Amino acid sequence: MATRTAPIVFVAVTDPVGAGFVDNLARLGGNATGFVLFEYGLSGKWLELLKQITPSVMRAAVLRDPAIGAVTGRFGVISGRRAIARGRGKAGQPRDAAEIERAITTFARSSNGGLIVTGGASTAVHRGLIIKLAAQHKLPAVYFERTFVKEAGLISYGPE
Question: What's the whole-model pTM score?
């Protein structure tokens, strides 16, 4: 932190702890305050919804954008849930359409799987492909925003 006296307000920051603005979210301390773009606890709800809509899901693939630094925190929340601890989880960080197709197709070869799609440029740009592949492979999928559902995705949960 460059200053300890001037007030610092962060707006729509993905990860204020990782960015070094604050020590932790529970007690910001010092001279910083602000708004986070996304609260990590929300990520755990995706897995809960996936299990509710398809109770047979025992494995979840988490499709995440490698350019987003906050994906580690999100995946930590998801993988920490008991529902996935009993099964297996896998995180994929495909960068382009070919990698996305390969990752989803490979994951879908095993049974009882579901897909969690987190936010980011690559998941937004390849939204149509991801929705198509989830349907093609009969993977129940939970998306981070309702735009996916408007385009035939199964379910979404996130801020509006």
Answer: 0.73
